[in-house]
């Protein structure tokens, strides 16, 4: 076991100062960045080829047990008012978490080319920040949101009822078999494809769900040059083991391996510092609301609540350290608006 993994393992069992944990994360990021720096298009092609041998989504039951079914009350205490469980966008040093949530949602709507009257499908709606935003802004649009857990669906449906949003329908589905009825003017996906393994199979399905002049918008976190898995079989990969089960870190260019399915119409890149600040704000909320959070997690983790409190806190520190590494130039967020390839 490496020194870094030993530190992280210790941090799960007993509290360690943040400075020690952050130093270990920095060292791990440096090691990973060095390994990925030499990768390029050929490696992306090989990676995409290996992805074709996998199901669309893996370890769904394990992911739900560890993550997706954590009560909504936990995320209410950690996330911002919109419960946006994805990267936010900070325009200035003084931008608050709520303002950053709303700016990220505004940019997503703009970049996806959303408009009133459209039929819109969101793949992986999380706690509903974007779905509710779209339904509220575009009252004559028909929004279908796909949730990965019953807890998420229940929360989004309750919020839609409370706000009188009759144009939002929420479904719970396994992406391995999901097949919506009809076609859509826009399909949007925010930090969902990182949880998917077989992009070719899923993108082929997405293409078939689009109307003839439709567009697919994808928002993913990425590395600047190399793709890699969060390998559950690697006992040293704590994120894969406990938080991000069955996921991957795509490169910024990985999506180009599927150019026979979709053509990129326009793309955008966000510095990793936006995710660093997002995670730091979540961490501040976690520490501020610690007692309430502990009570919420106890309903899921029981006697292991203390362990999972440390794991969640370590996850937030790791997210901050990863995306803040090298001033946000190594890992960041990529957005693409795509149309069906001709």
Automatic annotation (TrEMBL):
InterPro entries named among the record's database cross-references: SAM-dependent_MTases_sf
Give the residues annotated as coiled coil: none
Query: Which domain of life does the protein's organism represent?
Result: Bacteria
Q: Name one GO biological process term.
A: methylation
Q: Which UniProt keywords apply?
A: Methyltransferase, Transferase
Q: Which residues cross the membrane?
A: none
Molecular function, one GO term: methyltransferase activity
User: What name does the UniProt record give this protein?
Assistant: Methyltransferase domain-containing protein
Q: Which organism is it from?
A: Bradyrhizobium cajani
